[in-house]
Amino acid sequence: MYESKYLINFLGMASLASIIFLGIVILVKMNKIRHLNGAVTKLKKSLDEMDEQAKLIVRTDIELNKIQEELDKKITGLYALQRLSHQMSTTMEEGQIFKKIEVEHLEDLDFEKACAFSWSSAEKTFILQMSLGYTQEDTQRIKSATDLESAYLDLIHSGKTLSSDSLQKEPALRDKIKSIFKVTSFVLSPVSPKEGDKGFLFLGTESIDTIISEGDRELITILANQIGQALENARLFEKTWRSQQDLEKKVEERTQELTHTLDELRIVSKRKTDFISSVSHELRTPLTSIKGYASILLTGNLGAIPDQIRERLDKINRHSDELVQLVNNLLDIARIESGREIMKKEIVDLNAVTEKVSDLLSVQFKDHQIEFSAQMPEEARMVSADRSQIERVFINIIGNAIKFTPAGGKITVQSHKVDKNIQVDINDTGCGMPEEALEAIFEEFYRVDNLINQQTKGTGLGLTLVKHIIEAHNGKIWVKSRINAGSTFSFTMPESTQG
Ligand code: ADP
Question: What is the pTM of this model?
Fold first, then answer.
């Protein structure tokens, strides 16, 4: 009994301990469950967040794809635009510019219908310039849609591009355009060259998926501007071409007139030369006999001559000499002018010619107290020329220099090479000449009106002869001079190619 009491107590204790133990276990488990619940909630939250992010990524991807598509469309459109504008800018025919828009360009721009009209201000009507995807009937309908005419003109006037999307606030106009042009979306852009008739370009599509974006509107505006620019260039080219044609025609007419005048002048000049030549010939014979008789009488062989008569005979003799000189010069000029006087070309040393001429004129240098010097370097001396004619050139120019240079003055001759020519400069410190005489002195009978010319005799033929001789040698002659500042006569002669 005692034992069973102990057993009962022991069992009671054990049960209590088990209950306590179980309670502790339950408490621990519950704690764990609470922790687990917290973790599950956190996990769920992260899963939700991840799901949100995944959705965002998918949405972004879709948008990116859309943007990419838009970009691709834009790039294709830009390429089409670039090709088109190149073709247009190289077209100089106004009528051909609109025709450069082809189906493939439209496809690249995502349209399948296009047409363009220009407004003829003279005929007060729209003229069809191009159409794609439309029949003749369609374009006729578009053209004669009188209720749209003012809208077309407003568009041209405003210079602003319209599209089916931009006309949301004007549904009546938008729907009218849609039905007349048989499209669901469209862009209508003005073509406004600075000069001449303006117009508009229409591009549209029947596709219901097409949405006309801001970018599409911009592209078509650029295209319409390019057309305007190309039209402007073509019109400008046409204008320039026409004025060039006019100018060429005028130049041709003037050239013909001038050739005719030149022919007439040649005939007159030949007549003049022939006349001078024959008169001079006629004069030379009687002059020679006058001079001959005067000389015979002066010898006294035909009887003694009183002083008074001798004096007059001397005058006759001197004047006859002057006349013979004049006649000879005239005959020489006429001969060279007509090409009858052939230049006998040989190698001539200009230094030797200068020495010979200065020798000939030495008495005059002395009488006029003029210092003469010449510098002709070896490489600028040898010319191909007619020796006696070239001597005449030097005698005439240096003779004039002596005549027009006061005592104490200087005359210098210098030469140098210019390309394949030798240039000779004959300078004096004489009275010089006015500007207006610089060309005239080479004309027949021209003499400057100055004191020296009033006091000395001269024919005004010397320099004419000199010019003819130089030109007969393919050379040139000119003079630089100023009143009271001396003169420099310069001429060129072809250099001798031998020796
Ligand atoms: P001429 O000497 O017989 O008058 P030229 O034909 O030789 O005829 O010369 C024409 C004119 O050119 C001269 O009358 C003179 O007025 C002018 N002239 C020529 N050489 C000179 C010079 N070295 N200095 C000033 N005037 C000159």
Answer: 0.55
